[in-house]
Amino acid sequence: MGSSSAEIDQEIKEARGELHETLGVLERRAARGARVYGRIAAGVAVGVAAVAVGVLVYRRRRRKKVVNQLRRVLSDVRDLPDEVTSKLRTKLPIKVVIANRDDDAGDGGNAWSAMAGKIAPTLVGSATGAVMARLRGAPQEVATAE
After folding, report:
1. What pLDDT is attached to residue 53?
2. Distance (Å, rounded) from C-alpha 85 to C-alpha 79?
């Protein structure tokens, strides 16, 4: 029995040695894979950061251009002769009303004010565009039925 016990101990040591070597190989492979995925993640993060910075720079430059265009147009409007501004006032009656929300009365007041809040920016934009086109002297397009 002594020899079989020694043989069993030897087999156990060999199996442990093989398992230790296999475990070492697996650990190295896992570490290599983790490094590859880490590099990929770092590259993606740098790419996302670069795109974000590019978008921010683009938006800042674009806003400045729009602001400069508005300033140029408004300075042109201020320099108009008095007779032109008087004609514009008579032809384009624009009335601005500022009301407090507490002044709304009735059950349907909230629905109407919500609807007006959604429609108002479109109307203001269209009116502003029409005024600017008229001030620039751009020809107006006339829709015809064909």
Report:
1. 92
2. 10
| Angstrom distance (rounded) from CA 47 to CA 42 | 9
49-64: pLDDT as tens digits: 999 999 888 887 776 6
23-27, 66-70, 92-96: least confident range: 92-96
In DSSP notation, the chain reads -HHHHHHHHHHHHHHHHHHHHHHHHHHHHHHHHHHHHHHHHHHHHHHHHHHHHHHHHHHHHHHHHHHHHHHHHHHHHHTS-HHHHHHHHHH---------GGG--STTHHHHHHHHHHHHHHHHHHHHHHHHHHHHTPPPP-----
Is pLDDT larger for residue 126 or for residue 102? 126
